[in-house]
Amino acid sequence: MTVEAYGLPEHRRIVAASGLGLSTVPIDTQGATVSKLGDTDAVMLTPAHQFPLGVAMSPRRRTETIRWAADTAGLVIEDDYDGEFRYDRQPVGALQALAPEHVAYVGTASKSLAPGLRLAWLVLPAELTDEVVAAKARADRTNTLDQLTLAEFITSGAYDRHLRRSRHAYRRRRDRLVAALHQHAPDVRVTGVAAGLHAVVELPAGHDENHVIASAAQHDLAIETLNGYQRDDTPHGPALVVGYGTPPEHAFSSAVAKLCAAIRSAPLAPAP
Amino acid sequence: MTVEAYGLPEHRRIVAASGLGLSTVPIDTQGATVSKLGDTDAVMLTPAHQFPLGVAMSPRRRTETIRWAADTAGLVIEDDYDGEFRYDRQPVGALQALAPEHVAYVGTASKSLAPGLRLAWLVLPAELTDEVVAAKARADRTNTLDQLTLAEFITSGAYDRHLRRSRHAYRRRRDRLVAALHQHAPDVRVTGVAAGLHAVVELPAGHDENHVIASAAQHDLAIETLNGYQRDDTPHGPALVVGYGTPPEHAFSSAVAKLCAAIRSAPLAPAP
Fold it and tell me: Residue A181: is its pLDDT beyond 70?
């Protein structure tokens, strides 16, 4: 099982608990470097918006991914965790649509509604469906009322309206965050913000990201270091992962101000 | 892993999927015959209301169960699936309270609210808590909103009121079912109805339970044979397991009438 070199720490635990070996594939500006996949049965990717780096997989890499799956009979798990939120570019089609028998597509209501709902969906290669349904039933079933409510929400058109409203609101938040950082912390570089609900904030070389985290935490602001999501040991500069979807609307401006203050307060890191 | 000689077929699949061996322990009029447990690490029991036979475990057997667990360091899984619904007898205390370090207690809102909610709770020996929490997180988490709603329902007192109303309503259904069978199918014997939401209906020897099931199904009535819940091969007479909690209130009388008609229509079984 291969995962991207950056991603949720939880995935590593899930893979380990299932007894599979874990390898990583590097990410560059075109997305996962599929040519470096090597000998693996399955790869989990976030092609539409790499988590957390934020890059979208290039058309060429998408083609390479599908070719790898077809040539090796490998499985691609396409984690489309925030597919509803695209701002500055056209939505990218799912890999799954290009090769339905090689790609397991994963969608979720965690970003569009709430993570606590525990509602998600899979589009599976036909030959996997029975096995996955049985495994899910053994693990636990999902609240039937919640499923029926979501189905009604979708078929009534209200979910689409909710997404349009949310997309607009999150895009505004993204713009406010980027503008505030530009003004109050002009030395940082903000990346990965063409989509989704989080930004990668690269600090100037030598700055201590852990100090920023600690300073923000003192003001009740939870942010993460990019390190916390790294799964290989390729060096990278100091950087933060900032989720901007969480604060309630009335607290958003103050949260952004606290973030800028925490960044400005960070001293240079001690020399390694 | 040992389970009772009667129970949900699903348990066998769950145990098999986890790679454990499965043995069964017979049930008599005092509940599971714990003295026959033999060499096993864990036993799953329904002491308050054996599913589906309906017997309550006698005080003596309860003591034997706790002694077995203490002597062998074995684990008792106490499945209290319908503990809220007792009619003709005092509530029985949980085994868990007698030996909290040897008993994992399982409660659920499946009977008191709805199975589709997927809300249940465990009271675990302290040494198992971390491991079970981690396993549950890997399998899937439970809807946070549902958990908070149930917590509010309980602390407000509304859940208790709901249980009192439901207990009264289900007891009335139980009485109506028993009275109707007494009048319209006087040859059957109804057992296990001091608690819960189902009855075991023993047919006269030689009657064909499968015919009753098929005849009921023709009238959109889903009932089960006792055979469907049997996990060993001890012979028993023809019998049905009838859940009386499912039909909506306006359809209950007609469902009972259909059941009586299906029983009356059953011919003697072909000689084996």
Answer: yes
Bridge partners, residue A195, by sequence: A86
How do the pLDDT tens digits run along chain B, 272 residues long? 999 999 999 888 888 888 999 999 999 999 999 999 989 999 999 999 999 999 999 999 999 999 999 999 999 999 999 989 999 877 778 999 999 999 999 999 999 999 999 999 999 999 999 999 998 888 888 999 999 999 999 999 999 999 999 999 999 999 999 999 999 999 999 999 999 999 999 999 989 999 999 999 999 999 999 999 999 999 999 999 999 999 999 999 999 999 999 999 887 766 55
CA distance B36 to B102: 19
Residue showing tokens 């001293």: A267
Picking from B14, B139, B145, the nearest residue to A116 by CB comes out as: B145
Q: Is B141 on the interface with A (CB under 8 A)?
A: yes
What number of CA atoms fall less than 13 Å from residue B34's CA on the CB side?
26
Q: How deeply is B192 buried, as exposed, middle or buried, from its count of CB atoms within 10 A (0-12, 13-18, 19+)?
A: buried
Query: Is A19 an 8 Å CB contact of chain B?
Result: no
User: Three-state DSSP class for B105?
Assistant: strand
**Contact call for A117 and B14, based on CB within 8 A:** no
Pairwise CA distance, residues A94 & A252, whole Å: 32
The answer to whether the CB of A230 falls within 8 A of the CB of A6 is yes
Which residue, A212, A190, A187, A211, is CA-closest to A199? A190
Q: Are B257 and B216 within 8 A, CB to CB? A: no
* Interatomic CA distance for residues B46 and B57, integer angstroms: 8
The pLDDT of residue B272 = 54
B210-B211-B217-B219 Cα dihedral, nearest 10 degrees: -160
Cα B266 to the center of its chain, rounded Å: 26
- Kindly state whether A118 is in contact with chain B, defined as any CB-CB distance less than 8 angstroms: yes
Concatenate the DSSP letters of all residues of B155-208 into one string. Answer: HTTHHHHHHHHHHHHHHHHHHHHHHHHHHH-TT-EEES-SBSSEEEEEPPTTB-
- Whether residue B194 contacts residue B86, with contact meaning beta carbons closer than 8 Å, is answered with yes
**Touching check for B271 and chain A: CB below 8 Å?**
no
DSSP A208: -
Nearest to A89 by CA among A60, A48, A53, A51: A48
A142, B117: Cβ pair inside 8 Å? Answer: no
Q: Which of A15, A113, A145 to mutate to test the interface with B (most CBs of B within 10 A)?
A: A145
Nearest CA among A121, A31, A85 for reference residue A196:
A85
Report ipTM for this prediction.
0.81
Helices H, strands E: what count in chain B?
A: 8, 12
Q: Which amino acid is at A57?
A: M
pTM: 0.87
